[in-house]
Specification:
- This protein is of the alpha+beta class.
- It has one domain.
- The protein is built from 3 helices and 9 strands.
- An 8-stranded antiparallel barrel has the order 1-3-4-5-6-7-8-9.
- A hairpin with a 6-residue loop joins β1 and β2.
- The radius of gyration is 17 Å and the shape is globular.
- The termini are far apart.
- InterPro entries: DUF3455 (IPR021851).
- This is Malate dehydrogenase.
- Keywords: Signal.
């Protein structure tokens, strides 16, 4: 009963904050990519976009890892690894003050649902589709597509199929920095995945956009080591993907 109550409370919190964002947006509240929240330095900082985002999409799903036989660490370079997530349009709900509200709250609800239902993500159950439905219901956003990986020339490539927006993006990493120290670390307490800048990978599949930023990340980090080579691990995560022309 306690777990179910926690899930209801998490959903109620998200629903309350979401409803407050259904009002007309003022010029002062228009969303700006929150690069000021990170230490945007190092060899691959995230560039500042020159345009407004075409769409702001919440991704909710799993970071997929494989135990490497050579390093005894969890890696995402194999064909089974990468990530898979359902995508929800939150463009009209996002403002300059939203912060990580959607990624943090939706992931907490998602994690609670996974625990209550004891769901292990598989293709057969739609990667715990029931928990996606429950967790996304609170902010009343329709599923607009899917995020997944495939391989090109032996390299893992991130793809975003935004069917209802009639867009597709197949990318590669163009930049990356650590998430803010206060980002939600997920139920395993290991941290939030990096913020990324993705560019077209020139595979000829991208249509309707030119770059994607992964920001406001929550969860998704695997343990530092593993002992069963070839085994797989799925770590729940949520994030915002900001798409640009």
């Amino acid at each position: 009963m306690t777990l179910i109550r926690d899930l209801v409370l998490a959903l109620a919190t998200l629903a309350t904050s979401s409803n407050a964002r259904c009002l007309p947006r003022s010029e002062d509240s228009k969303p700006t990519l929150p690069l000021s929240k990170i230490s945007n330095t190092g060899s691959t900082p995230l560039p500042v976009p020159s345009k407004d985002p075409k769409a702001i999409i919440l991704g909710l799903g799993f970071q997929n890892y494989t135990c490497s036989s050579s390093s005894s660490t969890w890696v995402q370079s194999t064909i089974q690894a990468g990530a898979i997530a359902d995508l929800y349009d939150i463009t009209s709900k996002t403002t300059s003050n939203t912060g990580d509200r959607y990624s943090k709250s939706s992931l907490k609800a998602f994690e609670t649902c996974l625990k209550v239902t004891k769901c292990t993500p598989t293709t057969a159950n739609g990667f715990c589709d029931r928990c996606h439905t429950i967790s996304s219901a609170a902010f009343a956003s329709k599923r607009v597509g899917e995020h997944y990986f495939d391989q090109i020339n032996g390299l893992q490539m991130p793809n975003f199929a935004l069917d209802t927006l009639k867009c597709f993006f197949s990318g590669k990493k163009g930049g990356g920095v650590k998430a803010p120290a206060n980002a939600y670390k997920g139920a395993n307490g290991l941290g939030a995945v990096d913020w990324l800048y993705l560019v077209d990978n020139n595979s000829g599949r991208t249509k309707g956009m030119s770059s994607v930023y992964r920001v406001e990340t929550a969860g998704g980090v695997a343990p530092s080591s593993c002992s069963n080579p070839g085994s797989a691990m799925q770590v729940p995560y949520a994030t915002e993907y900001w798409f640009y022309d």
